[in-house]
Amino acid sequence: MRKLKITREKAFSAKLITVKIYIVDPNSGDLTVSGERCRKLGEIANASSAVFEIGEEAARIYVVNREKSPDKDLINDYYDIPAGSDDVELTGRCIYDVNTGFPFRFENVTVTPEMQAHRSVNAAEYGKVLKKARVRGAVIGAVIGIAVIVLLAVLFRAGNSGAKTYAVNGFSIDLPATFREYDPEPGDYAYFENRYVSVWVTRYGYEDGEEFTSMSLDEFSKARRTFLENEDGIRDVKTLPGDIPGCSFVYRDGSDDLTYHDYYYRSANACWIVEFCCDTSDAEKYEKQFAEWAKTVVLPQNAAV
Prior knowledge:
By secondary structure, this protein is an alpha+beta fold. It has two domains: 2-127, Immunoglobulin-like (Sandwich); 155-294, Mog1/PsbP, alpha/beta/alpha sandwich (Protein Transport Mog1p, Chain A, 3-Layer(aba) Sandwich). The chain has three helices and 18 strands. A seven-stranded antiparallel β-sheet has the order 12-13-14-18-17-16-15, sandwiched between helices. It has a five-stranded antiparallel β-sheet with strand order 3-4-2-6-7. It has a four-stranded mixed β-sheet with strand order 5-1-8-9, with no helix packed on it. It is elongated.
C-alpha cells in the first residue's frame, strides 16, 4: 500500500462545497462517475487536505463536487496515478467559473488531451443544467422576495444594545457583548459566535484567484448568488435589501435547517464575505439585526488587503 495526499487550496467555494474523493473500482457500487464504478475514499473541505491509502497498481482518482444530484457526473476532475510504490501528493482547488459549477481542478499535474476533453464535455453538459437552475431560482426568488417585504414591515427591533467592537487583523465589527471570538476555520479570516448566532468572515484575494483583485463588488455579489443557486443542499436564495449587497439562503445541515445572511464587501485588493448564521426557526428574529451588524463592518486599511 502507499499513501495518497490531496491538498485542496482555499477557493471561492469556501465552506459550502466539500469535495468527494473516489477511486475507480469495478467491484464497488458507491457511485458511478462518468460511466465508471467508483469507491469513495473520503471528503475534503475547503483549504484542507486528507491522506488516503491506495494500492500500488495504477489508479484513476475522481474528485466530485456533487454526488446526490442529477448533474453528479458533470462536475468532476480526474487524475490517473501510475503504478508504483512511492507515495503520491496532489493539489488543486475549486476554480472560479460560474458556468461550469465551480469544479475542482488538479493543479500540480500535466493536463493530458484526454483530461482536457473530459473537462470540456462536462462544461458543455453542465451548461444545460445551469440554464434550468437559473429559471428555477428566479421563480423561488420572486416568491421569497414578497415574503421579505412583508417581514421587514413587522420585524424591526432594537439592534445593537450592549455592542462591543471585535477586531481581528485590521477587520472589525460591532456585535453584542455575548459574542466570543474563536480561531477561524481553515480558509476563513475571523469567526465569532454566541449561543444562537455564528459569524464567519472570509477574504478572497490574489492567492485565491487573480480575478479577485480586479472584480467589482457587483460582479462578486452576482457570482456568489449564481454559485448559491446551483449548490446542493441550498434553497430559498434571495437578495437582501439595503445598501450593502448580500444574499440569504437556507442550508440543510444534517437534520437541521440553518439560515445564512451573506454580506459582500470590497477592499483595495480583495473581496470579502461576512456571513451570519442561525437556526431557520430564529431567522425572522435576527434578520434586521444581521443587517444592522453588517453596517458596522470596517475592512483593513492596509493597501495589501
